[in-house]
Amino acid sequence: MALPLDVQALVERAQSLMRRVTARSSSNFKFAFLFLSPAQRDALTQVYQFCRVVDDIVDERPPGAEGRAQAEAELAAWSQEVAHIYERSGPIRTDLGQALAGTIEHFALPRYAFDEIIAGCAMDLDITTYPDLESLELYCYRVASCVGILCIGIFGDQSELAQRYAKHLGLALQYTNILRDVGEDAARGRVYLPIDLLTRHGLSEEDALRCTYDRRFLAMAQEFHDIAESEYQKAWAELPNMPNLRPLLPAEIMGRTYHQLLAELRSRRFDVFTHRAALRRRDKLKVAAISLALTSLPLELPGARAVRSVLA
Q1: Could you read off the pLDDT of 82-116 as tens digits, one per residue?
Q2: Do 168 and 24 lie in a common domain?
Q3: For the chain, which terminal residue's Cβ has fewer other Cβ atoms within 10 angstroms, N or C?
Q4: CB 43 within 8 Å of CB 102
Q5: Among the listed residues 69, 158, 57, 73, the one whose alpha carbon sits nearest the alpha carbon of residue 113
Q6: SS3 letters for the chain?
Q7: Which residues form a coiled coil (predicted)?
Q8: pLDDT tens across the length of the chain (312 residues)
Q9: Are residues 105 and 226 in the same domain?
């Protein structure tokens, strides 16, 4: 039976976005894939595609009221798709939805994480600035921490400790992205740095949009760096008490890769306007080696808890 025209349009757009998403997945993401089983790789690819699809619905919408209405309709369609998967209350209309249904059942992934990711992307329809860290944290929790919670479910650990780890690591990664992408976001008319943080250092939203780079920016960037660093340390503080870290190896590779990116930003005096931070292949291999060593230590091994604390 033919689908209604509006539904058919949503399906076709979702499939088009999926093809583009797969082509532009990051090299860091692919590197972590090396340590996953084929089933885990497929599942993580689907989660990543879902995130990019709903993000692109907002970021690549046509301008004006018509574009907003289109984005709202497409986000609502994905909310309905998630509901149909979990509630078995209606047909699953997209190829990605069909694939996710099997993945969700196999890995017992929590519904709230998908709903929160959609809600986070919807925030970008109305919000271009965040008044303080608390409001930014809600956004980052939705678009990053909830992705992490789905990922650790795929990796094989859905314990309370692992979920706290994922929450803080997700915030840390997103804060690192925000600091790295200040210039790119400004070109899109967005300022993710908290306005009260800018104000404390004598900067305004307009300064951020103009990509002002001076001693005020350096002081502000250092404070935001420290906020991100704090989230990395909160995530790693959970590791010494986990009985089995091996399922978290891919997450550790991603986390420690982005921690190195944060260090590079600082070493370049936060010049995010003329240089995009990136790691060399040998640096990625070093990160992978440290992560593998950390996650391979059995907790019952004498001294393992102390070594984990040092590596973390």
Answers
A1: 999 999 989 999 999 999 999 999 999 999 999 99
A2: no
A3: N
A4: no
A5: 158
A6: CCCCHHHHHHHHHHHHHHHHHHHCCCHHHHHHHCCCCHHHHHHHHHHHHHHHHHHHHHHCCCCHHHHHHHHHHHHHHHHHHHHHHHHCCCCCCCHHHHHHHHHHHHHCCCHHHHHHHHHHHHHCCCCCCCCCHHHHHHHHHHHHHHHHHHHHHHHCCCCHHHHHHHHHHHHHHHHHHHHHCHHHHHHCCCCCCCHHHHHHCCCCHHHHHCCCCCHHHHHHHHHHHHHHHHHHHHHHCCHHHCCCCHHHHHHHHHHHHHHHHHHHHHHCCCCCCCCCCCCCHHHHHHHHHHHHHHHCCCCCCCCHHHHHHHHC
A7: none
A8: 344 444 454 445 444 443 443 333 445 556 677 788 999 999 999 999 999 999 999 989 998 999 999 999 999 999 999 999 999 989 999 999 999 999 999 999 999 999 999 999 999 998 989 999 999 999 999 999 999 999 999 999 989 999 999 999 999 999 999 999 999 999 989 999 999 999 999 999 999 999 999 999 999 999 999 999 999 999 999 998 888 888 899 899 999 999 999 999 999 999 999 888 777 777 777 777 777 777 775 544 334 444 444 445
A9: no
- Are residues 208 and 181 located together in one domain of the fold? yes
Indicate which CATH number applies to the domain containing 188. 1.10.600.10
Domain count, the chain: 2
